[in-house]
Structures are given as C-alpha cells and as structure tokens.
Amino acid sequence: MPNQYTVLPLRERLLSGGTRNGKCLLWNGRRNQDGYGMLDYRGKSERVHVLSYTTFVGPVPEGLQVHHSCNIRHCYEPSHLSVGTNQQNMAYRNACGRQARGERHARVKLTEEQVLEIREKAKAIGNARKGKQRDVPSLRSLTREYGVSWRTIHRIVDGTGWTHI
Ligand SMILES: [Zn+2]
Asked: Is residue 48 domain-shared with residue 10, that is, in the same domain?
C-alpha cells in the first residue's frame, strides 16, 4: 500500500507542509545541517525552497541558484525566492548586512540623551563665547566628539531637527 507521500503530488505536499510565520512559509519537516528544509522527492533528498521555486515559479536556469530574500533558509514562500548566481547571493547578503549595520550607525546615531547633551554643550559654548572666554571649543568639535555630521549638530542646536526631544 503506497504511503501518503507517493499519493500526494509534490504541490500538495508543499502546500500542506509548512507554517505561516509573518510573510514567510516555514517548512515543518526535516532540515539539513545548513538549515534548509528537506523533502524526499522521487527517491532523492531535495531542498524544499528549490522544489517550491520549480513548482510555483518556474524552472531554475542552469548554473543559477534559488535565493531567499528573507534569508530564512527553511522558508519556501515562493515570493521570497529568486534565482541568481552564487555571487549575487553573496552580494545580496552582504548588502543586507551593511544595511542593517548602516541603520544602527547612521540613522539611530544619537540617543536622546546625547541630543540633550549636545544642546547643553552648545549652549555652554555659546555662553563662553559671549563671556569672551578663551580656549572655547567650537561647535564643530562636537561633530568629532559624537561622530556625526555638522549638519546634524546644526539641526540639533538650531532646533530644526530632533524637535521631539
Ligand atoms: Zn521567507
């Protein structure tokens, strides 16, 4: 008597074998040591995301690989899969890494505390200047101190930026 797997077509096995997690479709079955979902198909152990691509999207051109846009290896949501060269895959992953790091460093560069600190220091610098004090650091020195652009400092000090603080 055939087991269910020989009865169910691949499409059905894929559709019934996963769990939705956000926009991802995560394979419930076995995973290989690299974290890819695996499925036995026609006597071979196949990677689920590749089967998903060939089943729901189209054939994988020779020499190309199926990549995840979500970077979750056991996800096989067809819209998260695309084909490309290995190099493209690496470039994409590096770009993702860079982007994530870039956001932490560039956009969320200053904490609220630091913004308040900068305002205080700028005020102190301004007062010291008015008092004709010598050896007063320039406002520009704050760019080095906090590792941000002059524009950022300027926007904080003149109140056009970071107004929520
Ligand atoms: Zn996904």
From this structure: yes
Whether 23 and 95 share a structural domain: yes
Structure tokens at 80: 């998260």
Question: Do both 29 and 90 map to the same domain?
Answer: yes
How many Å lie between the centroid of ligand 1 and the Cα of residue 78? 8
Among 44, 100, 99, 55, which residue's Cα sits nearest to residue 77?
55
pLDDT digits (tens, 9 = 90+) for 24-52: 999 999 999 999 999 999 899 999 999 99
How much distance in Å is there from the Cα of 81 to the middle of ligand 1?
8
Other beta carbons less than 10 A from residue 117's beta carbon = 16
Which 3 state secondary structure label does DSSP give 150? helix
In the listed set 87, 107, 127, which residue is the last one of a domain according to the structure?
Answer: 107
**Which is it for strands 81-84 and 18-21: parallel, antiparallel or unpaired?**
unpaired
Parent domain of 43: 4-107
